[in-house]
Design goal:
Order of helices and strands: EEEHEEEEEEEEEEEH
Structural class: mainly beta
Number of helices: 2
Helix content: under 10%
Distance between the termini: 14 Å
Radius of gyration: 18 Å
Length: 231
């Protein structure tokens, strides 16, 4: 798909489609023991809601030139994460919950307006109304690639789970791991908080799979619920 290829996961071919993919048809192909088979995924226009949010008196509401320079440096760091060499998968589906108990995720894809100013992109993860200091868990085995305070995400942990899957947890009150550390599914990587651009304690959890920003609920639920496409 999109000039990239990857192996099947547990004998199933998954085709993650990015949140900002333009409407239209995407050609996909799969190969097995015989000739390749092609099909199309139809991407329909999105209908995500717009949310008006008042941030209050925090630096993220009105970033200074120094803050913006910091954020630019952090974006360079994140771009390196998205371009990491893809290693074999260290996970199966469904992923483990990022917190326990895990309430229903909200606001994936929402277009947000902060203090009257539209955000630069839609909300690329889901928000979970978890109490402050709730343990945040690794959803699968993997390697921590970022574990630090970032300007907009606040205290953040990014984990590479192989097969191009990166999970991320934002707004933590405390980080419990370090970059380069290997973690196991269910390990505590931090605690829920309200750091960064946040209006109250909650867990932001997001995933990128083969570069696509997708709703994490698809990977946290029974994979049989993911829409199927045939040849």
């Amino acid at each position: 798909m999109n000039k990239h290829s990857w192996p099947a996961l547990e004998e199933t071919c998954y085709y993650p489609v990015d949140l900002l993919q333009k409407p239209g048809l995407i050609k996909i192909t799969r190969w097995g023991h015989g000739p390749g088979e092609s099909a199309h995924i139809s991407v329909e226009p999105s209908s995500y809601e717009t949310q008006e949010i008042e941030l209050g008196d925090i630096p993220q509401a009105n970033p200074s030139p120094k803050d913006l320079k910091r954020n630019a440096r952090e974006q360079v760091l994140l771009n390196k994460v998205w371009k990491r060499k893809v290693e074999p998968a260290k996970f199966t589906l469904p992923l483990g919950p990022p917190a326990s108990p895990l309430p229903e995720g909200r606001d994936f894809g929402a277009n947000r307006v902060f203090n009257g100013k539209p955000a630069g992109q839609p909300h690329t993860g889901a928000d979970y109304a978890t109490p402050v200091d709730t343990p945040v868990l690794a959803v699968a085995d993997g390697k921590v690639v970022i574990a630090e305070d970032l300007f907009f995400p606040g205290n953040a942990v990014f984990i590479d789970h192989g097969d191009g899957l990166i999970s991320m947890s934002f707004h933590l009150s405390e980080i419990k791991v370090k970059a380069g550390q290997q973690v196991k599914k269910g390990d505590t990587v931090g605690l829920v908080g309200t750091t960064g651009r946040s209006t109250g304690p909650h867990l932001f959890f997001g995933v990128r799979w083969h570069g696509a920003r997708i709703n994490p609920k698809f990977l946290l639920e029974d994979p049989a619920k993911i829409p199927a496409v045939g040849p």
